[in-house]
Amino acid sequence: MAEILLMKAAGALRPTDEDSLEWLSKLPKGKEVLVEAKRPRNARQHRLFFAALKLVHDALPDAARERYPTPEALRAALLIHLGYIAGSVVTKDGVIVHWPKSMAFHCMPQEEFGALMNGFFDWVSADVIPGVRQDDLRRELEEIVA
User: Fold this and answer.
1) What is the band of 20 on the pLDDT scale with cuts at 50, 70, 90?
2) Residues spanned by the domain of 23
3) Domain co-membership, 68 together with 52
4) Are residues 54 and 16 in the same domain?
5) What count of Cα atoms within 13 Å lies in the side-chain half-sphere of residue 96?
6) Structurally, how many domains does the chain consist of?
């Protein structure tokens, strides 16, 4: 099995790098290939997300900082809030404890990650730092990442 990167151009999928071109050139003419298509994650958006976590965590009011003591705690709470739950247990006291799904590139496709980003901005402006405007937050992040 090979992983190759293709791009749609002129109504067909075309290789985007030398490795992909080499693999396709070795394929006999008329040979069928089963393809599992996935859009690769946007690395810039991934970096933007972690910059956003840090920015929001640094701006937390004291009461929220107790609830989210680290950017990682904020990330885990976001994932659980948005329903990205890998599993749950019930403690002997009857408390339900969830843990989040992985956000690793191979675990979360781009479409899902884009929805996560939008959910992050909604959650921050509604619950984490009420009153912060999403467009202001996004603009500040773009300046940081640029």
Assistant:
1) confident
2) 1-37
3) yes
4) no
5) 5
6) 2
Mean pLDDT for the chain overall: 90
Question: Is 80 found in the same domain as 126?
Answer: yes
CA-to-CA separations, 107 to 43, 46, 101, 111, 120, in angstroms, rounded: 14, 13, 8, 12, 18
Residue 114: both structure tokens together: 């884009």
Q: Say whether both 105 and 73 belong to one domain.
A: yes
**Scanning the structure block, which residue is given the tokens 């151009």?**
9
- Tally of residues, the chain: 146
Please name which of 27, 124, 145, 127 lies closest in space to residue 135, comparing C-alpha atoms. 124
Residue 107: CB partners within 8 Å, gap ≥ 6? 101
- The Cα–Cα gap between 34 and 25 comes to 16
Task: With cut-offs at 50, 70 and 90, classify the pLDDT of residue 41.
Answer: confident
Cβ atoms within 10 Å of 118's Cβ, excluding its own = 12
> Residue 42: helix, strand or coil by DSSP?
coil
Residue with tokens 């939008």: 118
Residue 131 pLDDT grade (very low, low, confident, very high; cuts 50, 70, 90): confident
pLDDT higher than threshold 80 for residue 23 = yes
